[in-house]
Design a protein that fits this description.
Number of strands of chain A: 11
Oligomer: heterodimer
Distance between the termini of chain A: 38 Å
Number of strands of chain B: 11
Largest sheet of chain A: 6 strands, mixed
Distance between the termini of chain B: 36 Å
Shape of chain A: globular
């Protein structure tokens, strides 16, 4: 049973546009929601993360929106740039599971110049 | 810190051979994780350690897979005997505490012919 569902699988955005990637989770025990960015040939790297006590977190052009009641969270990339072209993974963890992260299937983002 | 260091970056071997992947986590990180990434299955957690002790190996696919962490600065993942279906990118990641960001290495791309 997949506990974190991510959509879309792929996304093409024009330079300067907004990229939006969505994730939905099932386990209400999750209490840490990171997003990772992965470039070809590299390991995933933390982009931004949120805990459920806030509904939004912004770092530069990247924003996480979190809806606890709907069990959904999303990544918004404002003013998307070609350098943002990568694969993005959402994840969820909870304390009682000692840090085991459950990952979404990933979204391949292409930003066209 | 140099980050999580994995070796080798690429490994090509024949079916039936033993393969050993190596990982040096970030100093001071108490948790170490081994992940496998494939197109079909995404990022799968194989096993993780806390303070050098294996905590959960439920993701290890078969007895052919084994992992050790003899000290805080070194871990190995061994496949014996290897099979073509083991071909994947294997990532090592470490984290400071529970529910904190994962720091991934750049992975080992394993090809079993």
């Amino acid at each position: 049973q997949q506990q974190v569902k991510q959509s879309p699988q792929s996304l093409i955005v024009q330079k300067g546009g907004i990229s939006i990637i969505n994730c939905a989770y099932e386990n209400t025990a999750f209490d840490y929601f990171p997003w990772y960015q992965q470039f070809p040939g590299k390991g995933p790297a933390l982009l931004i993360a949120i805990r459920p006590d806030v509904s939004e977190k912004k770092e530069g052009r990247f924003t996480i929106s979190f809806n606890k009641s709907a069990k959904q969270f999303s990544l918004h990339i404002m003013d998307s740039q070609p350098g943002d072209s990568a694969t993005y993974f959402c994840a969820a963890t909870h304390n009682t599971n000692a840090g085991k992260s459950t990952f979404g299937d990933g979204t391949t983002l292409t930003v066209k110049p | 810190d140099a980050g999580v260091i994995q070796s080798p970056r690429h490994e090509v071997t024949e079916m039936g051979q033993e393969v050993t992947l190596r990982c040096k986590p970030i100093s001071g990180h108490d948790y170490l994780f081994w992940y496998r990434q494939t197109m079909m299955r995404g990022l799968e957690l194989l096993i993780y350690f806390n303070n050098n002790v294996p905590i959960d190996d439920s993701g290890m696919p078969e007895d052919r897979f084994s992992a050790k962490m003899p000290n805080a600065s070194f871990s190995t993942l061994k496949i014996q005997p290897s099979e073509p279906r083991d071909s994947a990118v294997y990532f090592c990641a470490s984290s400071f505490v529970v529910n904190s960001p994962l720091h991934f290495g750049n992975g080992t791309r394993l090809t079993v012919t």
